[in-house]
Amino acid sequence: MSRVIYCHYLKKEADGLDFHLYPGELGKRIFNEISKQAWQEWLKKQTMLINENKFNMMNPEHRKKIETEMVKFLFEGEDVVIDGYKPQN
C-alpha cells in the first residue's frame, strides 16, 4: 500500500516515495513532502542539468549545484533553467 502525503511540489495529496532517496535532513524532507510524481519530474530535470552542463557527480561542487537546483525546483517552485536549452515544440 502506498503512503499518501501532501506533496509540496504538486500542492495536493499524492503517493509518497517508498523509501528515502536522498541522505540527511533534506532526504527526510523529500521523503515526507515530495510525491513519486514530483520526484520523477525532478529526475528528468536533473538528467538534463547533468548532461547539458557536463556535470561529474564525483565532483562535490557539481553535486552541490544539483542539490541547490533540486531544492529550488521541488520546494521553491522554480523551474530549472539550463543554459542554451530550448524546449522542442
Automatic annotation (TrEMBL):
Keyword check for Iron: yes
GO molecular function, one term: iron ion binding
Gene Ontology CC annotations of this record: cytosol
Signal peptide as annotated in the record: none
UniProt cross-references to Pfam families, sorted A to Z: Iron_traffic
Any one GO biological process: cellular response to oxidative stress
InterPro entries: Fe_traffick_prot_YggX, Fe_traffick_prot_YggX_sf
Function, as annotated: Could be a mediator in iron transactions between iron acquisition and iron-requiring processes, such as synthesis and/or repair of Fe-S clusters in biosynthetic enzymes. Necessary to maintain high levels of aconitase under oxidative stress.
Family, per entry: Belongs to the Fe(2+)-trafficking protein family.
Name of protein: Probable Fe(2+)-trafficking protein
